[in-house]
Amino acid sequence: MRILILGEIILIGFAINLQAQTLNEIESQRVSLPNGWKLTPVGKMLPLGDLPLNIALSPSKKLAAITNNGQSDQTIQLVDIEREVILDSITIGKSWLGLTFSGDGKYLYASGGNDNIIIRYAIWNNHISIYDTIRIGKPWPVKISVAGLALDDAKNRLYVVTKENNSLYVIDIQSKKVVSQHPLGGEGYTCLLSPDHKLLYISCWGGDKIVLFDTNQQKITGSIPVGDNPNDLCLTRNGQYLFVANANDNNVSVIDTRQMKVIETLNSALYPDALAGSTTNGVALSNDEKSLYIANADNNCLAVFDISTPGSSKSKGFIPTAWYPTCVRIAKNKILVSNGKGLTSRANPYGPNPNRKGEEVVYQEGGKEQKIKVQYIGGLFKGTLSILNIPDDKQMALYSQAVYNNTPYNKNKELISEGVEGNPIPQKVGDASPIKHIFYIIKENRTYDQVLGDMTEGNGDRNLVLFGENITPNQHAIAREFVLLDNFYVNGEVSADGHNWTMGAYATDFLEKTWPTSYGGRGGSYYGEGKREIANNKNGFLWDNCQRLGVSYRSYAEFVDGNKPSIPVLKNHFCKSFTGWDLSVRDTVRFHQWKHDFDSLLAADALPQLNTIRFGNDHTEGLNLRKPTPFAHVADNDLAVGMFVDYLSHSSVWNSSLIIIVEDDAQNGSDHVDAHRSTAYLAGGYVKNGFVDHTAYTTTSLLRTMELIRLRINGNRKASSLILQKKTWLVTLNSTK
User: Fold this and answer.
1) Is 168 helix (H, G, I), strand (E, B) or coil?
2) What value does the mean pLDDT take over residues 492-517?
3) SS3 at position 699
4) Are residues 383 and 51 in contact, defined by beta-carbon separation less than 8 angstroms?
């Protein structure tokens, strides 16, 4: 994997100017990501904080405020747009998305997140300072959670939408009291006042609608249905047209506010009928209101439309951004884009270690003892602000070509992959495969170096090995006897999004934007694994596709909570005798529970084609008192995996089976290549023996491999975005190159 020099420059605080004029100049700066995508951001870039989500422009359009809402330090930053420099930054304890200037530009209102407050900042002499706060409820665990804000200075009214108790709050600014509260019928994202301030438009993130609030009557008067997970909003100056970004539908709804209905839907994906996964989550109008700029987070680009004739809009192309653009705003003739994950992922040699507690690690450098903050994956990303001029048609053509060159996905590759005739992995989705049963084992949180760094056959760092061959002899044996994958990367960062990636090849904008809050200790809950509907993939998960295609399936604790499935598709499709998430129960006990169920199903000729099994005790419990040590937990997990492979290898279905073993994420370990690099294993009658593969693969490679065998993951784009097969295997993964 390429050394990501650009990201390092950004991280030490220098701006980068990438105003390239030719395609070669643009692509000379290309950066490869661990998920198989590439970046060629254009424009000048300024360093931001962890997960910037929103940009607010001052009334003069001379200043921009940005809220950073990630897992590590959260801040509000102030930017001089004309000079393209950062003026000031202030730490905020808890925040999330909401951000708006007062009409005179002297104050800035910001969401206090799960503290359930709004913080008012004073803007003076290019500096930002706390002025006062407005409280709408007691802090977490009281579930309110301030999201988007809108301000009416003339009426001294602040409008606040929330994403936990799904409400609109109307606040009197002078008294700092809540005037009224109104239920939205779903999680709120943001809100926007009409030009005459008579109507408030609210994006109901979890309700797939725009809620209409009459500010004179002080009541909700109706709603307009839009796409799935609507988030950001923008209005024409005359208020006639409202544009709504729909994250799970790759599109923008265009609403005629005179008719109060959608008159047009703009497809912002790279291909007209692309599957869900572009994650459309930001909209902004050009100054002449003839162009609409749309941030596509998971395509790492802006889509641009000519909307001079609403109802008959036309695509103008794409502009490459940095990683995961979350917001776009236009200030005069400049485009501002906040990139949530910046320019790069990074290695984390000083990452978490279950044998070590505390915020700092001690290491030796140059004979001296040094201290460094633990390199936790949740806080490694550093966002950036892209600032670029409005491109002309010639530049748009170059930018569009660069965007397409950055993506490993196209429509043809959804159904067909490169490969070798006669390989057990078909080249075309739906073609026959001799593999009849898949056993998909999901484990917890380990990096490659932490476990397999001692295998001399691969690219490992022995200094980072914690659970080496003396602790995990079975996983080492599987990697050595079958295939060693030393260039495998998980798509998710933590378990909250990792399990959704593992079972659905995608994480929604809700998950991506909310897990850093809870993982940063700022309130919030665990929303992954089907625990909250808005967090679920629109077209479901691997099991949903099995159901649609008539493929039999069964889950052993994955997406099952307290012996109850967390999503409807698993009803009557899970093993009730298999223990779910409980670290006090050994994985070797779970193996015997699975074995009993497997024997019964095999005897009845009812063995499902897809079996998802959760062996999660390699998560460990750290050094908690009266708990097994990390070594004991991981050794138990390793033994369970070994017993599983051994037992299946002596069964009648071994020769027609494929075992795929993966970690849901790599958050709790160190790795010298990348914090996303993890372990993955293959075993089965058709898997090549004694082979080392250095090809780059990801979690979605595993799902694509299953798709090609028999299980069509066609519910979202991410699963079908992976393209090349390694020709030297008998059973191969689908590469992210």
Assistant:
1) strand
2) 97
3) helix
4) yes
